[in-house]
Amino acid sequence: MSTEAERLHAACERDLGDPAGWPDPTAYPNALALCIIDAIYVTGARHQTVERIVERYRGHRAGQGGDADSDGAPELLASIHGLGGPRQWASQIGNRRPTSTAKGAPLRSVALLAAAGALVELGIRTAEDLRTAAQDDDRRAAAKAAWCAVPGQQSGFTWGYLVTLAQVPGVTVDRAVAGYVAREAGTATPAAALLRAASESADWENAALHHAIWRFESGRPYQREVPA
């Protein structure tokens, strides 16, 4: 193991606690709707807030005889329109948080509608469609550009989280995780290679390590809660 990977390994042991307690990576491999909801609402929110929104959507769809865990973007769009639009969806399922602190910033439910619609316009209706599109450079670039054109998504952070949630293979390292790796390893070596080296040397699951670092960097709990 290289010196840089050793430094990263030591930092992870210091910061992340027992790997056995790392939360399982959040993913919705069969539900693009849930990927979109989680990605749009994740920034600046407590993880319990996003979980409650996801659960309310699940309950809403179950009440309609649907299954949120197999919903694609069209089903998400139908749920927004079925409740009367993004403001009503925000009141009943989401919340009233805007996409940014800028004056007049739209609600996140408005961004949700725009993001889902943009993906459908590109023929990306399901999580499998997203995984397929991500393997083609042109289609991936077009999808990312459309997503980042949605209010509040310009940085690309939520795009990276979206493809992680959809379990796109070979996904690039999240920006926050890459920042942690560069800071702790003290090198410009690609983060993916260092994460892989640190994981293999310690027999850690690479996706679990990536997720634990992401939670640590975003201020979320990085150890599972143990019932009293």
From TrEMBL:
<dbReference type="GO" id="GO:0004601">
    <property type="term" value="F:peroxidase activity"/>
</dbReference>
<keyword id="KW-0575">Peroxidase</keyword>
<protein>
    <submittedName>
        <fullName>Heme peroxidase</fullName>
    </submittedName>
</protein>
<keyword id="KW-0560">Oxidoreductase</keyword>
